[in-house]
Design goal:
Order of helices and strands: EEEHEHEH
Strand order of the largest sheet: 3-2-1-4-5
CATH class: Alpha Beta
CATH topology: Nucleotidyltransferase, domain 5
Number of domains: 1
Structural class: alpha/beta
CATH superfamily: Dinitrogenase iron-molybdenum cofactor biosynthesis domain
Helix content: 10-25%
Strand content: 15-25%
Number of strands: 5
């Protein structure tokens, strides 16, 4: 299983970032190999494709099947769903801890996007299981 984590820094001790497309780093954990790969994220639109859709395509190409983030917009969540990547919500934990929580099935899976102009609502929007 490959798990992508939106992170504030480039290693597994970094905190999970609050939003998918604007995360400074995407950390890819490969369970089979026990390795981490850090990918810098510009969060920019490229060739007319929004950052979330572009990132979903990239993650799918890397074989990622799960994503951990704080929040996710509707377009990105749809693109991730189309790529068959499950999206999980984490807050206040490191990337490494979020991977452990996915394995133990304690992270909530996002069932709907946060479509607010601002994601400063602290996750209290009711869009999460």
């Amino acid at each position: 299983m490959k798990i992508a984590v939106c992170a504030a820094g480039a290693d597994s001790a970094s905190p999970v970032h609050g939003h998918f497309s604007s995360a400074p780093w995407l950390l890819i954990h490969d369970d089979a190999a026990g390795t981490w790969q850090a990918i810098a994220n510009s969060g920019e639109h490229v060739n007319g494709q929004c950052a979330g859709g572009r990132l979903a395509t990239m993650l799918s190409g890397l074989g990622v099947t799960a994503l951990v983030t704080g929040q996710c917009g509707a377009g990105a969540l749809a693109a991730l769903g189309a790529a068959q990547i499950g999206v999980y919500r984490a807050e206040g934990v490191t990337a490494g801890e979020s991977v452990r929580q996915i394995r133990s099935t304690t992270l909530p899976r996002m069932k709907d996007a946060c479509a607010h102009e601002s994601h400063t609502h602290g996750g209290q929007c009711g869009h999460h299981e």
